[in-house]
UniProtKB/TrEMBL annotation:
Belongs to the PEP-utilizing enzyme family. Residues 275-567 form the PEP-utilising enzyme C-terminal domain. It comes from Thalassospira profundimaris. Its cofactor is Mg(2+). This is Phosphoenolpyruvate-protein phosphotransferase. The lineage of its organism: Bacteria, Pseudomonadati, Pseudomonadota, Alphaproteobacteria, Rhodospirillales.
Amino acid sequence: MQVPPKDQTIPEDHSTGVRRVITGLGASGGIVIGRAFVLDRQYIQVSRKPIAEDAVQAECKRLHDGVSESIDQLKRLKSQSSTADSAASEELGFLLDAYIHMLTQSRLVRGAEELIVSRKLNAVHAVSEVIDAIATQFSGMDDRYIAARATDIREVGLRLMRCLMGETDRAVDKAPKGSILIAEDVSPADMARFEPGQLTAFVTALGGAEGHTAIMARSLGIPAVLGAADIIRGVSGGDQIIVDGGRGEVILSPSEADIAHYSQRRTDWLAARDKLASLRDVPSATRDGVDIDLHANIELPIELSAALENGATGIGLLRSEFMFMNKDYLPDEDEQYEELADIVKRMGGKPVTIRTLDIGGEKLAVALQNEMGSGPNPALGLRGIRLSLRKSELLEAQFAAILRASLHGPIRVLIPMVVGVHEMTRARQIYEAVARRLRKDGHAIPETLPPLGAMIEIPAAAIAIDTLSRECDFFAIGTNDLTQYTLAIDRTDDQVAGLYDPLNPAVLRLIRDVIRVAGERDIPVSVCGEMAGDPRYVPLFIGFGLRNLSMSPVNLLPVKQRLRRLDTRNSEHQASRVMEQWDSARIAMMLDDFNDLA
């Protein structure tokens, strides 16, 4: 259960506009009453440096690439808006069609290209000048409808400028403390810039409940509603709104009755959280005395406090991407060592599993993106161990930093996106070579190297788990990507995210088989995907024989509460019955029935 911080204040006054309820996907539970900060309408600082003559052609291409990206964004928004009520969907669709038209062989694009060629302006400067010229012309017309189109021109132009600037202008850090962030989209890199307590909730027009941004929101305990397409035209900065992250609702211009009702619901939420907190120091064991390790997944260092406060007995997945986010350079070995050593020390002797770099898909590092670009389908492209082996100097620096940090506490090293044993063999060769180099250079590292394991998140790896066991010291099952790749469904794609189903029998069989083979080979295995943090699935994992779960810090206590009511033999029987089923709806019903009774 997730709630806002205790010290959050609720404004006494409220907006006087027309009350509206905008619906989306409840991505992270909690209720917040506060003021909106509309990120995508912030002012953009334009660089006015001219370009060289020989750069004109490349700058024109950059302009047209930005136009293409802007059109793709608008099409995604239009697709997302189809989930709104029919009247809102139709109206928003017309508006977005108009925006697309403004970017298709329009005066805006032609005028910007002409300024690049004739005056050697950079693309962002050129677009800015054309926007000002067109908007000024429209604003001066007698026809009030045409004059109002100046706002639309500026909206389209600012979108194009943001695309050209790589969204680097998004001033998250300028949000007033306690704000509710409103944005078209929020990336994991944006979230890495959040200061504790700065934002109390966020709402986006795009995104799905299973995407990486949603996972980070749950991990940080920030209430969030994603995929609320109508929000892009429904709220202004400073408006008072209510966000219900559990139900996926945003209330604009709330009434006094709304304020009272949601204030009481928030109070109830806090009381439920306090009750859960009493479980922090009790053993995480089943009713029949089987101990279950409950570890935390960590996206950002600021989550460490929450992990310890909620009783985590270790970190089961430390995602190392945070060291690369929002940087236009690649951190070297020393910088990574300092970051990792600090985390290991703060865990006070509890084990820490560090995953090597998994940049790709939703998780982009500016420095690597600039250097390597991105393929047509990043989720199926150069990411995880593929990228690390292609650029072995990245992997070597990470291995060195991890090995040096292992002097400060127990560490395991996890390799992401493994397909086959050849990748683990090569990774181990590099790992051991780095260890030899460190010893030769005089660095103290443990005599016995920390265990090296594989992330099981690609079906090929799960199917060939017996072969992988020859080269791996442990396994960690990533249910998010395993489900996505097994079902060929992009969980971040608004059009198919609803088909993402971790209870699909094929997914469950892969998970069960990995756990079974690991048990037969006496290889430690954990589950660290989103399924691990859902109390609904705990009986299934216990029934499969799993004894280690890793999850977002906010889910540790609800999962502990659930497993303390379970008996392993009953769970094994239920898991056996589930695996006889072929329909995921039937499986879901059986799990719900079992959870109601046990």
